Amino acid sequence: MVQRKKWVILICAACLVCGVILCVAAIRSCTPTFQGSRVKNPDAYLLDIRKMNGTDLHTLELNEGDVLRIHFETAQGALYMEIKAPDGSSVYRGDGKAATDFTLRISQRGVYTISVEARQAAGTIHIHLEEDAQ
Q1: What is the pLDDT along the chain (134 residues), one digit of tens a residue?
Q2: What is the DSSP string of the chain?
Q3: Do residues 71 and 29 make contact, with C-beta atoms less than 8 angstroms apart?
Q4: Which of 55, 114, 105, 111 is nearest to 87 (CA)?
């Protein structure tokens, strides 16, 4: 009986240790991190991501008729980008898998917000304001 009780305690302790290790690993995988290069300019937003978890934001002040040239490619994990117009409407949403090189013509003057969300992601996001777009 005593031997059996020791085994039950040992198994419970091992399960507890395994549970703690799994929880720590889960928390570490969700902790915001960024490895790579990031450039935020008034006319560009450039992310070369080796590893990213979390969210990154950038704003661009744009004029009606401006054109954004976008390269968006997800190489690993989940990478999601949304570009919102000044009125809060979404002008682009995607994951960098279907369309990787495209342009976006701006229809409304104001500040556009670019939001990037990543989970264990690697990839590239390059957004440039084209010169002489009009």
Answers
A1: 778 777 767 776 666 665 555 544 555 555 779 999 999 999 999 999 999 999 999 999 999 999 999 999 999 999 999 999 999 999 999 998 887 899 999 999 999 999 999 999 999 999 999 976 44
A2: -HHHHHHHHHHHHHHHHHHHHHHHHHHHHHS-EEEEEEEEETTEEEEEEEEEEEEEEEEEEE-TT-EEEEEEEEEEEEEEEEEE-TTS-EEEEE-SSS--EEEEE--S-EEEEEEEEEEEEEEEEEEEEPTT--
A3: no
A4: 111
